[in-house]
C-alpha cells in the first residue's frame, strides 16, 4: 500500500501503522533494533517520554543494545520520562553503553567522571574517566579527542581547588593526576580536527602559531584556522562537512 504523505489523514494512518509494525517487531519478534525504533517513535511521534524511557531502558537491560543504553542515560541525566534526574543512574547506563562499544556513551561517561564543579553528584574518578574518553577517541569521536587534548593542555590537578588558571607558575608544585603535555595535546587536537571538530582545529591553529607541542609554523597555523572557519560555516548552514572537503 502506498501513501500520499501530502494528505493529513494518510500521514496519520502511516504513522499509526508504523507504530503497530514497531510494536510487533519488538514484542513479538524480539528484535532489539526494532525496540529502539519503537522508543524513537514514542519519543518523536507520540511525545510519550515515559513510555519511550521504559523501552530504551528495557532494550538496554534485556538485549544489551548500546544505543538504547545511551538514550536512557540521557533521559536519566535530564530527568526526561522520569520523576527526577539522576546522574549516577545516567552514569550506570553510559558505562554499560561504553562497554558495548558505543563511543558517545564512552564520551559521556568519561566527562562525568572527570568533571568538577557545582551540581556534580558523581564521584570523581579521573583514571577511569580517562580510559572511557580514550576508548571514545580511539573509536573516532571528535569531541572525546578534543576533550582529552584539553586535559593535556592544562593538566588535571589532583585537587582542582589548588589549580590557578590565571597564574600557571603557581601550579608548578601541585600534584597532578595528568601532567600538562603539549605534544600529547597537539596529537589529540589534530585527530579531533581531522574528525571535524571546529574547536580542535582552532587549537591546532593556535598551537602551530605559538609552537606549543609542535614546531612553530605560521603557514600551518593559518591553514588550520581556515579549516576551522570552513567547518564553522558548514555547521551554520546545517550541512554535514567532512574534514578538508567542500560543501556539495
From TrEMBL:
Superkingdom of origin organism: Eukaryota
Provide one Gene Ontology cellular component: mitochondrial intermembrane space
Q: Name one Pfam family in it.
A: Sel1
Q: SMART domains recorded for this chain?
A: SEL1
The alphabetical list of record keywords is: Repeat
What InterPro entries is this protein classified in? Answer: HcpB-like, Sel1-like, TPR-like_helical_dom_sf
Which PANTHER family does this UniProt record tie to the protein? CYTOCHROME C OXIDASE ASSEMBLY FACTOR 7
Family, per the entry?
A: Belongs to the hcp beta-lactamase family.
The name on file for this protein is Cytochrome c oxidase assembly factor 7 homolog
Amino acid at each position: 500500500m502506498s501513501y500520499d504523505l501530502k494528505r493529513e489523514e494518510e500521514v496519520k494512518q502511516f504513522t499509526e501503522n508504523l507504530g503497530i509494525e514497531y510494536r510487533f517487531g519488538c514484542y513479538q519478534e524480539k528484535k532489539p533494533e526494532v525496540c529502539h525504533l519503537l522508543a524513537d517513535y514514542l519519543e518523536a511521534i507520540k511525545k510519550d517520554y515515559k513510555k519511550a524511557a521504559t523501552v530504551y531502558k528495557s532494550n538496554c537491560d534485556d538485549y544489551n543494545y548500546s544505543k538504547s543504553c545511551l538514550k536512557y542515560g540521557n533521559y536519566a541525566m535530564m530527568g526526561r520520562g522520569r520523576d527526577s534526574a539522576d546522574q549516577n543512574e545516567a552514569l550506570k547506563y553510559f558505562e554499560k553503553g561504553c562497554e558495548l562499544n558505543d563511543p558517545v556513551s564512552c564520551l559521556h561517561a568519561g566527562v562525568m567522571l572527570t568533571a568538577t564543579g557545582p551540581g556534580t553528584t558523581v564521584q570523581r574518578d579521573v583514571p577511569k574517566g580517562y580510559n572511557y574518553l580514550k576508548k571514545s577517541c580511539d573509536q573516532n569521536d571528535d569531541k572525546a579527542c578534543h576533550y582529552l587534548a584539553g586535559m593535556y593542555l592544562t593538566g588535571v590537578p589532583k585537587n582542582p581547588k589548588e589549580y590557578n588558571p590565571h597564574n600557571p607558575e603557581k601550579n608548578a608544585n601541585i600534584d597532578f593526576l595528568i601532567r600538562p603535555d603539549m605534544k600529547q595535546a597537539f596529537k589529540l587536537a589534530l585527530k579531533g580536527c581531522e574528525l571535524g571538530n571546529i574547536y580542535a582545529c582552532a587549537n591546532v591553529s593556535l598551537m602551530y602559531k605559538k609552537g606549543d607541542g609542535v614546531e612553530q609554523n605560521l603557514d600551518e597555523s593559518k591553514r588550520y584556522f581556515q579549516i576551522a572557519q570552513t567547518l564553522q560555516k558548514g555547521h551554520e548552514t546545517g550541512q554535514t562537512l567532512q574534514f578538508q572537503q567542500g560543501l556539495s
